[in-house]
Specification:
Layout: E1 2-3, E2 17-18, H1 20-24, E3 31-33, E4 37-42, H2 50-53, E5 60-61, E6 63-71, E7 74-78, E8 81-85, E9 89-93, E10 99-104, E11 109-116, H3 117-120, E12 132-135, H4 136-141, E13 144-146, H5 149-167, H6 174-195, H7 197-200, H8 207-222, H9 229-236, H10 240-251, H11 255-271, H12 278-284, H13 290-301, H14 305-311
Parallel strand pairs: 2-5
Antiparallel strand pairs: 1-12, 3-4, 4-11, 6-9, 6-11, 7-8, 7-10, 9-13
């Protein structure tokens, strides 16, 4: 399945969605086209607030984000899985992903290239020439890719081409130039991905890997309402014991721990949204009452939901 050409992004019902605009507030300078295409670079001096740059609270972006690491290291959690990115790494974050910044080294340096979901929908590609001929399932399984210094530099140069066209604001066909530059960028990126053997062939999954991936999909869809391991095991037509053993083998976490961690991510995201009170969060996450939710939250964080909210 070619990414961006045929992937359908589901409408998100979560309340902790960030826009590209929030990225601009994290650094002192950036290139921007109508809040739909943003290119920014960050280093220890330019980042005003690292917490705002890469959310320290769970977030979804209404955009496709490419995050490049030029120096240092960053630990980031995507859909409940932690990744450690270092020099010459590229992280691709889709609007469906729940992103959670964990930590960054003092010498962290890199860039963000963001394209809003709405703008992505305006870019048309033919079936004969999709922008990246790479399986979405493969990127979903591993959104972090480490490139050679030459490949990483080439990607950065392609972004520079987009940036140059964004800056030519007096051009009579400004948007059309940006559209073409974006398409060329995705062709160049696809060419680099395809040159890497591990990305060339259609990915194959063992039965346990398929069940692990299917469980993650079910968890994203149902975790707010379904807290019982048996629900997910039944959906996968396996026993609860077998499901937990697979998850333990694949990730080191049991099924119940996966569900608890997912609930905590959802809870933290909603608690950071001012218009939602604690009772509404408890209802949204299908707890019988606010007290039960409060006990669950405090068990996993050591503080109450209200204290957590005030700390942000």
């Amino acid at each position: 399945m070619p990414i961006f050409a045929s992937i359908k992004i589901k409408k998100m019902t979560h309340n902790f969605t960030d826009s590209i605009h929030s990225l601009k507030e994290a650094v002192t300078s950036y290139d921007n086209y109508q809040d739909d295409v943003v290119i920014l670079e960050f280093d220890p001096l330019s980042i005003k607030n690292l917490k705002n740059f890469a959310p320290s609270n769970p977030s979804r972006f209404e955009a496709v984000l490419l995050l490049g690491i030029s120096e240092g290291e960053m630990e980031i959690q995507i859909d409940y899985v932690k990744y450690r990115a270092h020099k010459n790494s590229l992280i691709l974050i889709m609007p469906t992903h729940i992103t959670y910044f964990v930590s960054g080294s003092e010498d962290l340096k890199g860039w963000v290239f963001a394209i809003s979901k709405a703008y992505m929908g305006t870019l048309s590609y033919t079936q004969q020439h999709p922008p990246i001929v790479i399986s979405y399932m493969q990127l979903k399984k591993n959104p972090l890719t480490v490139f050679t210094p030459e490949e990483y530099a080439s990607i950065y140069d392609s972004i520079g081409f987009v940036r140059n066209n964004m800056c030519r604001q007096t051009h009579l066909f400004h948007k059309e130039k940006i559209d073409l530059a974006l398409k060329m960028f995705f062709f160049d990126l696809g060419n680099i991905y395809l040159s890497k053997r591990e990305h060339y062939s259609t990915p194959t999954f063992s039965r346990k890997e398929e069940l692990f991936t299917d469980f993650q999909s079910l968890l994203r869809e149902h975790c707010k309402k379904q807290h019982d391991v048996k629900f997910y095991a039944n959906k996968l037509c396996i026993t609860t014991q077998y499901l937990s053993s697979i998850l333990k083998e694949q990730s080191g976490k049991s099924a119940s721990r996966w569900i608890q961690d997912a609930l905590m991510i959802e809870a933290k995201g909603m608690l950071r949204t001012p218009r939602i009170n604690v009772q509404q969060v408890a209802n949204e996450l299908n707890f019988p009452d606010q007290s039960t939710f409060g006990k669950f939250f405090k068990k996993h964080t050591g503080i109450s939901p209200l204290t957590f909210r005030k700390s942000g």
